[in-house]
Amino acid sequence: MTFSFLPVLLVPLLAPCVAPLLARRVLDRCPPVAALWTLTVSALLLAAGTVATLGTLTLTGMLHVPAFAAVGELVHPLRTPSAWLVLPLAVLAAGLLTLATLALGRSVVRQTAGLRTARSQAGRCPAAGDLCVVESARPDAYALPGRPHRIVVTTAMLRSLDAREREALFAHERAHNAGGHHYFLAAAELAAHCHPALRPVRDAIRLAAERAADEAAARRVGDRRLTARAIARAALATHTADTRRSAVTPAATTGPVPRRVAALLSPTHRPLRTGSWIAALLAVCAVLSVTTAATSAVEVHQDIEVAQGEARG
Hints:
Blueprint: H1 5-8, H2 10-14, H3 19-29, H4 32-62, H5 66-71, H6 83-123, E1 127-128, E2 131-134, E3 141-144, E4 150-154, H7 155-160, H8 163-178, H9 181-192, H10 199-221, H11 224-238, H12 257-265, H13 273-307
Parallel strand pairs: 2-4
Antiparallel strand pairs: 1-2, 3-4
């Protein structure tokens, strides 16, 4: 590893910083399902590039410490820049990895507990097919992942909507389960804990999931205005309610509801020609990030083999 190699490691760490700007453009110019897939896959690749780069920096610094060099059976010095440069970067990278791991662990525990509570509550109530009605004065409705899938709605929410609006609401929640949107939301949570710049992308993924379910519900009931009205009234009903739930249980009242309603009331979305270019640009950034990180890791591995005497420099 040479001095010119270190700036290359900045690519996977800086690439996620352009993702939020591109994510907003993808949402505006691409169909919801295409945007959901593009944003999620790109976020995961950018997160993987970040983690791989931090891991590479950490490993490189560790092998400058005699104790770790002995464990790694290094018989020659590792070909890296000065330890005065590498060691501080390695300590910083290790600290960032540790913080990200702890934050992700807390999030997993919290989300798992929320899902367990929601599923336990749904299991105690009678179900009609996939619909589970919970007696509660708090208006709420959400899609509950797992086997079997459930649509959970409270009695207060049912009272807030008329019969046709309920049909649209149920169609929305069923679209979440049919589309496996909880997987996308879980991936967004994972990526957001790997790099701070990916947190706005997590919000964009959530919005894309809601827009995809909105469009599916509108097709199901055959009335875009009815779907928009159902979502707006459901959101108004839950506006003052304390609706705490797991981040991987999608709900019709999630995200910027006025923006979603406006999209439903506008003519059927037609993909803009620039949308594919922006989505491609985001994908290129993600692929460049993970490719650069992988190349760096391979080069470090080769340097370690040289230092172990297993290969020629």
